[in-house]
Amino acid sequence: MVGAPVARSEDPRLLTGQGRYLDDHGHDALAAAFVRSPHAHARILSIDADDALDVDGLVAVYTHEDLPGRIGEPLPLLIPHPALVHPRTGYPLARDVVRHVGEPVVMVVARDRYVAEDACDRIRVEYDVLPPVVGVASSRTADRLVYDDVPGNVSAHLLQEVGDAPAAIDAAPHHLELELEVERSASMPLEGRGVFARWDPDDESLRMYSSTQTSTSVRAAVAAKLDLPLHKVEVVTPDVGGGFGVKIVHPWPEEVLVPWAARRLGHEVKWAEDRREHFISSAHERGQLHSVRVGFDDDGRILGLDVKFWHDNGAYTPYGIIVPIITATQLLGPYKPGAYRVEFWSLYTNTVIVTPYRGAGRPQGCYAMERTVDAIAEVLGKDRADVRALNFIQPDEMPYDHGLMFQDGRPLVYDSGDFPESLRLLKKLVGWDDFADYRAQAASEGRRVGIGIACYVEGTGVGPYEGGHVVVETSGRVLVSTGLTSQGQGHRTMLAQIVADELGVAFDDVHVTTGDTRRFGYAVGTFASRTAVMSGNAVALAARAVRDKALRLAGDALEADPGDLEIVDGQIGVKGDPGASIPLRTVAVLSNPLRYAFDEAAKQATQFVVGDVSKPPVPDDEEPGLEGTDYYSPLRATFANGMHAAVVETDPETAEIKVLRYCVVHDCGRLVNPTIVEGQIHGGVAQGVGGALYERMVYDEHGQLLNASFMDFLMPYATEVPTVETDHLETPSPLNPLGVKGAGEAGVIPGMAVIASAVEDAEGFRITRMPLSPSELFHLRARFAAGEIPPVHQRRVEA
Amino acid sequence: MSEELHDVALHVNGVLMHTRVPARRLLSDCLRHELRLTGTHVGCEHGVCGCCTVLLDGAPVRSCLMFAVSAQGHEITTVEGLAEPDGTMHPVQQAFQECHGLQCGFCTPGFLTTVAAFLQDNPDPTLEEAVEAISGNLCRCTGYQNIVRAVLRAAELTKVNT
């Protein structure tokens, strides 16, 4: 099954309306709604809820003052780092000061959401408005502060260095500088966040459903906040309507408040985020300013690279500085930078928090590096692909140690990859060497076209670990569970393929559960393109343990050496002897000696039927049941890579940018399910194109998000996304038993870089700011025509 | 102050269903929470994303932009009503599975209803027409490529079946 384009087992449910997402639960639950700050920065003077009390159906109104003990304390700093010297996290409900529009101030619980919002409308909060800090540039100048006790708005400052980059650049035959900017965007899943909590007062236990990327960690966080023993809290992740990073953050204020209110009120409580709430209270990403200095030789070989960048972390830092660390380290892509120096400042602003969005800092890093390589090629008048090839890490240099520390606190060491081969495939796929002819032909038709290229390397499958549990039921059904969660990636199918192969059973007999703490309690979560690597290997190892046990037991039953046995289609038999065999389900019966017969299968396992009376019913070092648990914990991340090329056409009159072709060569090691991997790439590319051409968070100087709706935040429709042409290279990872690498984020990473490269090629002047709208391109053209920006090269043929 | 409730009789998926809702209850919320047909999803509540698309007398409408009380007297088809009574999936559903036209599945019911109505009007669409047909629905997972394939495949399946 592994390697086959198996149809997804998730689909029949989801296609017939039988999916169960967060808001499909708890129809009789009370509904929560929130009064959120309308100001980016303000002191709360008073909260008056008197008018709300008349609303029929109102159940409760809570402000920070009502939150007892740990509920009212600041939310946790999930990922501390020594460089994060001024961490700040918010309160579940604001205390005294609000620091971004959308911060929750009052929680209302009522009969239904309509009534809860009626009550919210009647609650009057008086504010003393303070001057806000909006945007990276404004935060960097630090004329205003988000926190009086955080000098320069700097939450973290980190420098990593290999060699003496400034000296190498000064000594190089050529050098150049680039100032680059990327604006904010966001994950924007079509299902917002949501929480549903059910308190059982008799059992003193909590069942909680959350649209999260990490159920185990939500459980631990909520148990700590509510001061409950861990085993009294169950967190179930139902079907989740997309995550893309935003749902890895936890506990969100609502994940603390909803279960707390359910317990306090003795009634089920639910909160389902609406779209405006998602825009102004769930995390964003991407906003960074980069200043790059590079030195290179006459051939274009990079001798030294010095990058300074400023990262907008929003109002709080609950997720630490993971995003800028990833930018700093993954910026290097497939290249050897010579000496490298990277320094970043993570800055507070009075805007929504910044945490990973698919790609997690890599798109900005890739953009900075690829813009730099394009600029080197341009200065030297060389082919952009040739300059890339010259700087590639070669296959015989793997594993390649960059001498830096990666996001997991471990050395940045690439395990495998064949970058020259990937480039060869990409050039062939897109027709790189023939593009001049196409350009000339287009020009003769009055059309302006350009081609771009961008390469990336992605650290995937970071630790610390994931686990898997596999049990064979006496029915022959194989149940598999892993703790991390799914948001539409087809994990159930992919993991079932792996277990079916490892165990020798039919794919249809394997049933996978993810993200349910009732089934598996130890897990980290779904992020960093890690499920195939982490849970894939964990369930493979667990299945191998079950297989070994099944063969031991079958060996006894068949009086054969377990080494001579194999499992084929759920039957254990002697290799080469079709006569002697026993079904796996019967071995499951034998594995659990019983006193009581409750069904036909159990009857076969009772003490008068089974076993050698000279041995205990369960031998030493064995456990009852045909099941196994194992964990996969890697030494370090495994590195996937890819290269994209795009052909764009820019309208000479309107400056509209159309992506004519989009080509992808992708190497994520061994493919478990090529259909699913292709789907991940398609979706990633769509988000990459969105980030390059359409999506941005438009904050005004007051910190108001002006485009907080799908009418104004322009996510691509089918008409905006190009057809993706793909080719795969499979360079197995030497680090894990399956040889797999992650694939979830890959498609989005080089999107901005490749589109910038292609538009620059079409237009003949440098593109430094993303996203790029037609009106911005139009104005750049005007500046170019006025001589305010210099031409980049002579490739352009006048249309 | 308490809200006035209205008796509403809705024809949903061929079944007459009775409920009592305030005048302001959105059709989407009524379908989901009163009638417990949760296959219809809500992604934006301002009519842009298309997740809540249902068929009203055979034509796609955004159920988040319509009050439940206004739907009285109309035939409503939700995603739960697309398959045959014996459970055989609608050609559009089959095509979405075959072509990997869904990932998280949240936008999918809106696409399915939209495409089912589209193919009634245009049983033999070109690629461009297929793209146009789905260009009012947002999907954040698939990049649309496989959805477009699914539209064309559904047209083929419909032809084979009829």
What can you see in these coordinates?
The complex is a heterodimer of chains A (799) and B (162). Chain A is of the alpha+beta class and 799 residues long. In chain A, strands 3-5-1-12-9-10-11 form a seven-stranded mixed β-sheet, sandwiched between helices. In chain A, helix 5 packs across helix 6, helix 9 packs parallel to helix 18 and helix 13 packs parallel to helix 14. Chain B has 162 residues and is of the alpha+beta class. Chain B folds into two domains: 76 residues, Ubiquitin-like (UB roll), CATH 3.10.20.30; 71 residues, DNA polymerase, domain 1. In chain B, 33% of the residues lie in helices and 17% in strands. Chain B is globular. The mean pLDDT of chain B is 96. The interface between A and B is large, with 58 and 59 residues.
Summarize the structure.
By secondary structure, chain A is of the alpha+beta class. Chain A has three domains: 11-130 and 187-281, Aldehyde oxidase/xanthine dehydrogenase, a/b hammerhead (Aldehyde Oxidoreductase, domain 3), CATH 3.90.1170; 288-462 and 635-785, Aldehyde oxidase/xanthine dehydrogenase, molybdopterin binding domain (Aldehyde Oxidoreductase, domain 4), CATH 3.30.365; 466-632, Aldehyde oxidase/xanthine dehydrogenase, molybdopterin binding domain (Aldehyde Oxidoreductase, domain 4), CATH 3.30.365.
Main attributes of the structure:
heterodimer; A: 799 residues; alpha+beta; Aldehyde Oxidoreductase, domain 3; Aldehyde Oxidoreductase, domain 4; 3 domains; six-stranded mixed β-sheet; disordered C terminus; B: 162 residues; Ubiquitin-like (UB roll); DNA polymerase, domain 1; 2 domains; five-stranded mixed β-sheet; 5 helices; globular
Based on CA atoms alone, the radius of gyration of chain B comes out at 16 Å
| Average pLDDT rating of chain B | 96
Return the CATH architecture of the largest domain in chain A.
2-Layer Sandwich
| CATH H level, superfamily name of the largest domain in chain B | Beta-grasp domain
Q: Rough shape of chain B?
A: globular
How would the global form of chain A be characterised?
Answer: globular
CATH class of the largest domain in chain A: Alpha Beta
Enumerate the spans of chain B where pLDDT stays under 50 for 5 or more consecutive residues.
Answer: none
* Biggest sheet: strand arrangement of chain A: 3-5-1-12-9-10-11
Main β-sheet description of chain A: 7 strands, mixed
